[in-house]
Design brief:
With 135 residues, this protein is α/β, with parallel strands linked by helices. The chain is built from 4 helices and 8 strands; from the N terminus they run E-H-E-E-E-H-E-H-E-E-E-H.
Length: 135
């Protein structure tokens, strides 16, 4: 069966610093689609983050590039397999230079935390009890 993929394109100030940040979170860089002005971060088999230097990003849009340190252009939410994995990933992000945002959300059946990456893009990490998801 065909599995649809998502390629999230994000404008970054420093491609090399962003590659280092995301590899410190445990993700890999696909060298086949990585250049001096673009990094292909493999988050899962179906989720790819394309980190584009701002000049390269501008090749794909005629719109002004948002400054994610001042405005919210997108909220990226990734699932985690457990509450502990939520805390682990956010902890790695903070240790790698990211910034925790907001307070943890704990609804019992759902737990989440957020961080901003080096460029200010907000990433939410969420665990949901499988029993609650299935109804």
């Amino acid at each position: 069966m065909y599995q649809q993929m998502i390629f999230v394109n994000l404008a970054v100030d420093d491609v090399d610093a962003s590659k280092k940040f995301f590899t410190e979170l445990g993700y890999t860089i696909n060298p086949q689609f990585t250049t001096d002005d673009c990094a292909c971060v493999v988050i899962s088999d179906t989720i790819i983050a394309m980190l584009l230097g701002k000049r390269r990003y501008a090749d794909f849009t005629r719109k002004e590039i948002a400054d994610p340190t001042r405005t919210s252009e997108v909220l990226l939410c990734l699932s985690a397999e457990s509450r502990e994995k939520v805390d682990e990933l956010v902890g790695k992000a903070i240790a790698a230079g990211g910034r925790a945002t907001g307070e943890p959300t704990d609804e019992g059946f759902m737990y989440g935390r957020s961080f901003d990456d080096l460029d200010g893009h907000t990433w939410e990490i969420v665990w949901m009890d499988p029993a609650a998801v299935q109804g």
